[in-house]
């Protein structure tokens, strides 16, 4: 196990600025999504989208900008630029967001960070009910998996790459494992999987809407809660709990596929994928690490893992087959 310096830089975005940003974000989301779809929008907003608050810390942005100064990537035309070629990292990297997020939130700063280091990155919003829906990752995991697989094939074909790497957070991390195992031909074109906080064996916290439903009505049975979630537009929430069919399917036989390198990154402070070690895949050829193995004081919770520069360093080094932490560990506010 490699370890890095335990010196820390403190996030200098103050809480007043966070609150202002969050209020603006909430107001924008409410007015864009609630009218005409009040029940679904209310649930999606309050149980899934509030977590987007303030992960774009000044420290994170500075690290991204610094990395971009030395980027060996040929100039990009924009999002999903299939003309992108890297002189140092030939594999395109497909990034997959978490439940209730989009390609431009949740994994967007990690995306920019990897671009700055010379990776050609690609992403999509999967699992949305319709193209205009403000959040993704809500549809059944197998349905989203088919959509992701088609995108991975498109990236490989359009870039001419021999292999593709997958990076995901939360549900997106689960999808990196699921798609590689079950979608036809994907294991043959994927070289590396880096999964950040995947609910690999399901979670006992019941994930977002599921958790909220149980807090309101803890006596409800799992099938009844599943029906409620399906009705209000979050089938994936029920797919990712302990004992769910999708989770059992993933864990029926080896998860790791021959020829694919796997890295699972978790946080000891994760409050949604619990118990926290259920993220790990205990199989040959899989590297399982906590971010605290490298940055012991890192307080990152489940959502924060997507925005944590310490995690970013683990991701980028895993994509280089030489996992290590950052030279200087950075902290953000705990438990987010």
Automatic annotation (TrEMBL):
<dbReference type="GO" id="GO:0016298">
    <property type="term" value="F:lipase activity"/>
</dbReference>
<dbReference type="GO" id="GO:0016042">
    <property type="term" value="P:lipid catabolic process"/>
</dbReference>
<feature type="domain" description="AB hydrolase-1">
    <location>
        <begin position="91"/>
        <end position="211"/>
    </location>
</feature>
<dbReference type="Pfam" id="PF00561">
    <property type="entry name" value="Abhydrolase_1"/>
</dbReference>
<dbReference type="InterPro" id="IPR000073">
    <property type="entry name" value="AB_hydrolase_1"/>
</dbReference>
<dbReference type="InterPro" id="IPR029058">
    <property type="entry name" value="AB_hydrolase_fold"/>
</dbReference>
<protein>
    <submittedName>
        <fullName>Lipase (Class 2)</fullName>
    </submittedName>
</protein>
<dbReference type="InterPro" id="IPR002918">
    <property type="entry name" value="Lipase_EstA/Esterase_EstB"/>
</dbReference>
């Amino acid at each position: 196990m490699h370890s890095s310096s335990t010196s820390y830089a403190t996030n200098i975005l103050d809480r007043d600025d966070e609150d202002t940003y969050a209020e603006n974000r909430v107001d924008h989301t409410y007015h864009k999504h609630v009218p005409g779809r009040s029940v679904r929008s209310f649930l999606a907003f309050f149980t899934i989208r509030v977590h987007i608050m303030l992960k774009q810390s000044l420290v994170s942005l500075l690290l991204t900008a610094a990395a971009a100064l030395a980027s060996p990537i040929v100039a990009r035309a924009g999002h999903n630029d299939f003309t992108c070629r890297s002189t140092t990292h030939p594999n395109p990297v497909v990034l997959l967001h978490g439940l209730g997020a989009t390609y431009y939130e949740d994994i967007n700063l990690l995306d920019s960070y990897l671009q700055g280091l010379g990776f050609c990155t690609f992403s999509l919003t999967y699992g949305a009910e319709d193209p205009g829906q403000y959040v993704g990752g809500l549809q059944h995991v197998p349905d989203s998996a088919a959509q992701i697989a088609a995108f991975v094939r498109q990236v490989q074909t359009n870039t001419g790459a021999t292999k593709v790497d997958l990076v995901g957070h939360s549900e997106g991390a689960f999808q990196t494992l699921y798609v590689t195992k079950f979608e036809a031909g994907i294991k043959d074109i994927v070289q590396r999987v880096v999964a950040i906080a995947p609910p690999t064996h399901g979670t006992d916290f019941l994930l977002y809407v599921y958790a909220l439903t149980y807090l309101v009505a803890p006596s409800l049975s799992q099938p009844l809660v599943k029906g409620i979630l399906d009705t209000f537009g979050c089938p994936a929430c029920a797919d990712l709990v302990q004992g769910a069919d999708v989770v059992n399917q993933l864990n029926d036989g080896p998860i790791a596929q021959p020829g694919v390198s796997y890295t699972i990154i978790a946080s000891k402070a994760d409050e949604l994928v619990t118990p926290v070690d259920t993220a790990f895949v205990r199989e040959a050829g899989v590297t399982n690490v906590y971010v605290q193995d490298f940055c012991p004081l890192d307080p990152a919770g489940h959502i924060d893992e997507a925005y944590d520069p310490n995690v970013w360093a683990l991701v980028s080094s895993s994509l280089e087959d030489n996992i290590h932490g950052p030279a200087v560990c950075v902290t953000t506010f705990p438990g987010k």
